[in-house]
Give the backbone structure.
Amino acid sequence: MSTHKPLVIGNWKLNPGTAAEAKALCIAIRKKLKKDAPVTVVVAPPFPYIADLTRLSPTGRIMVAAQDVFSEDSGAFTGEVSAGMLASLGVTQVIIGHSERRAMGETDAQVAAKVAAALRRKLTPVVCVGETVRDGSGSHFGVVEAQVRALAAGLTARALAAIVIAYEPIWAIGTGKNATPEDVEEMHLFIRTLLTKLYDRATGKRVRIIYGGSVKPENAAALHGAGMDGFLVGGASLSAESFNKIILAVLPA
């Protein structure tokens, strides 16, 4: 079992359609969240809604993350958003290297640069790693290892301890296929062991490792029992009721 305080992040992606709907969803999630529950709850809305949502939760009962960030602090980069801009709005975490961004061409080097930018502004990077396919040859371990090694190459042990690693098997995202608790536990142990080899046992233990990939109320308890420190939730986070059930699944019995 995990020794970290559970972390549950709702990645809203390109949803909902209006600012009013985004605020209503955040309020509904907040109403269902138990006061003083031993869990960190975060929502990651589209960029235009961030300011509204941080104002809705000034005490940080629900934290606000960004879905991406640019690697530079300023300059002629049309359409990009810097870590400093996000921090000025009250953002506390930022998702980096999501499989959908990697599918659009984002490289390990770009992921590492974004992580560095987030850390400079004291934002918590939530770095996604995961394989496209899983087969009997074990090649999926090599894919994840390469991504973790590329991430760790530029980080001190102290910096590494400040990030969250989100394992998201791409074949289990929006495909109807589900990773089993055994799959998740196996990869969790693999990543934790790799971090220990790259740094040391203490550093390996300090890093939060969460799971993302078709997390639903029906499978959340079993997946959390595989040792993960929480979840990166996609579609199910767009329903306050479903998201709350997933949050309840990570709480101590």
The radius of gyration is 17 Å.
